[in-house]
Amino acid sequence: MTVFLVIVLFACLLLAVPIFMSLSLSSILALMTFTNIAPEVMAQRYFGGLDKFGLMAMPLFIFGAQIMLEGGIARKLLSWAKTLVSWLPGGTAFTAHFSCMFFGALCGSSPATVAAIGGVMYPELIKEKYDKGFAVGLISSSASVAILIPPSVTMILYGVATGVSIGSLFIAGIGAGIIYTLVMAIYVYWWVIKQGMTRSENFSIMKFFRATFDAIWALGVPIIIMGGIYTGVFTPTEAAGVSTVYAILVSLFVTREMDFKKLYQVAKSSAALCAQVLILTSAAATFGWLLTVARVPQNAANFVLDSGASQLVFLIFVNVIFLIAGMFMDGSGAVTILAPIIHPLGVALGVNPVQLGVIIVANLAIGMITPPLGLNLFVANGITGVSLTRMIPSVVPFFLVSLIALLIITYVPSITLFLPKLVFPGSF
Questions:
Q1: Alpha carbon of 255 to those of 113, 243, 247, 398, 413: distances in Å?
Q2: What's the total number of domains in the chain?
Q3: Per-residue confidence at 157, pLDDT binned at 50, 70, 90?
Q4: Judgement on whether residues 19 and 84 belong to the same structural domain of the protein
Q5: Is 108 strand, coil or helix?
Q6: Do 366 and 280 belong together in one domain?
Q7: Which of 44, 70, 209, 260 matches a 20 to 30 Å C-alpha distance to 391?
Q8: How far is Cα 400 from Cα 112, in angstroms, rounded to an integer?
Q9: Opening angle at CA 250, ends 244 and 252, nearest 5
Q10: Is residue 326 located within the same domain as residue 185?
């Protein structure tokens, strides 16, 4: 049954059938061909895949991110971020780079970060005579960190698929995301120095204070999300709900860039986006259930243990598998299909499940800039008009640098687990 299931799945994917349909069709055909289980059970499994408390956070974070985009909160945070780094040599490049990190911490979506930051920063980079390829590569690559730092939809899906604490994953993602961003920032600094770029302005403490005062309400969003989870006041789901209500109130009554009509439109667009993710989640849960019926995770774990594979070899295997998966499918699809199989193998070999989750998501962050799928590249192409043939060579250095960050995240686990051990000492 397993071979049939996988063959049908990949045949559908190669025929460009939507992922949720590929998962559903392969599951239904395998169930009807190789088991005596009534097909009606599939409907129960679809609903069962969504009947998980952790999934409640995802629609709230998606809704909250859209409100922050439309309500002026995101723009104020970007202006604040600009005062922190615009005084560096190549300050505009650093502004674009770190703005992607700040924005990603609000929306949890790499393509959305490319669209938002690219629309603002790409014209600025071109105006200052940056190479078009570098400008697009910078924005596309910097935005990939959005699914690694909280609140990450991909991490929520990983937690739901494997049972790993979403709160622990969020906290661990902070350290990994900072390393990912800083390693890439080193390359940006080397590039701007090589190009002979100088400071465009000096740092002004008064300008920083003014920007901070202007963004004080906007800064409340990340404080609520991470501060609430870090201090134990909120679970991730509660933080999602509180931060969304906070964003609505600020957008309606403080920045006043949103009215109730606009709020209704944002709610509709967010609902459509949530439906796309949740239907994929339900189909993947059914697919994973069939794999469990076929004892694939158990047999794979026994094979790995019997072969004497070490943690080092296993982690190399994980990185290769998910780097390849990231080339052909989005992060949500890769996590929902592969994580239930990989997770028990890692646990059997003694790999920390939180660390394993962060490694997997880091691979999928890199997948956002790797052809042929590379969602960030296609979004950047639509925003800037730069062709993929010109874009891809400029992305290659960022890809290589991101591999260095991946190796650090993979083989220096203390970076990832330092904060979770402080916040949840009894769990590590």
A1: 21, 16, 10, 36, 41
A2: 2
A3: confident
A4: no
A5: coil
A6: yes
A7: 70
A8: 23
A9: 100
A10: yes
